[in-house]
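Chapter review: from sequence to fold.
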Amino acid sequence: MKSTSAHHIQVIKGGLGAVKGLRLAAVSAGFRKNPEKLDLAVIIGPRGSTAAGVFTQSNFAAPPVKLSRRHLDCQAEGKGFRALIINSGKANAATGEQGMKTALEVCQAMAAELKCSPEEILAASTGVIGAQISPGVFSKGLHQALVELSDDTGKNEGAGVAVAEAIMTTDTYPKLAARSFVAKDQDGSETTYTVGGMAKGSGMIAPHMATMIATLATDACIEQAVLDQALKKAVNQSFNKVTIDSDTSTNDCAFLIATGAANRQPLEPGSLAHEAFETALAQVCCELTYEIARDGEGATKVIVVEVTGAASDEDADAVARAVADSPLVKTAIAGHDANWGRIAMAAGKARAAFNQEEVSISIMELEVFTQGSIVEFSEEEASKRFKERDEVFIAIDLGAGQASTRIWTCDLTKEYVAINGDYRT
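The token string follows.
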């Protein structure tokens, strides 16, 4: 295993399957026409687990989003976390009272199986908006999943891959990541902790306070309020910094579960162990974010937009998003065209505080515009780098301050149009 930080964070395999205390199952329940595709993921934690979540800000938030928000609020009343149920194929969004009834019945059914409160069950859905889901399909799928649950040893790489596959829609591959770290306990002994996660998303991606669908977990023991803060911090550094097409889904949600299976002593905020946990969590989230950009619908290139020298964090974010969301910038990259004028255009429309005479722009380390002046560069070299690289790095220095940020996106190709034109057919 490779060390990746001063905290000796180790890259490991397995996604959620690497987290002790979790039991996982993925089945084909019938939400999709293809019976060969997995479409239901079940994630169960031990009694005493905690969970946190962030969700879409869309006014068309789906019933599972509304219900999971409500159930997480119940943790303040002493309720914990027992299970998360995720289906793909049908989003259960814009489905009215029946959609909420279905989501509630699913949580009640799982609660009955686990002999816990329905408020300890969370739910998420992804897929076609406006399609009703039969509770009978859920009932059949849950029964099958409970029979096929993995053990809780944290040595379930196959199960981790399977649940990541079950939540896919237009994704071309499952996205999962995991890290481990060793931390000293209060008595001087050492404990190995794990953070694992999975995410889905290729299109309708421009998260606001959440991501497409992401589930993260750790085997550390963490109090719910502390877990909530850690999740929001990690999401703002990662999932809230990715955009594929500037569209925010009705079903965006990100969950973080703490099983306490590694050590029942809660991690104290400010301790070295908690600091290592936050570092590992951020790494997992950033890796998943990068994979989402890499797997953008029809994408051939990851685009990383880095803005420095901004007058404020808000200005840095506004400029980076304007460039990352620009169809003209994204199509230029798809065409291997180092058209820096489109980047300047997009930066300018963000209305951030800067003077164009102070701005510098580079594409794949080629300086194309420096402090307000055009720079002669080799189009031949630019073309060569486009062909050789899967990632296009765009750097913009606004020369207006000290704030900076980074946004992940991808190019915009004809394939994106084809995928979304045929999405329901």
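Two observations follow directly from the output. The first strand starts at residue 10 and ends at 12. The radius of gyration is 22 Å.
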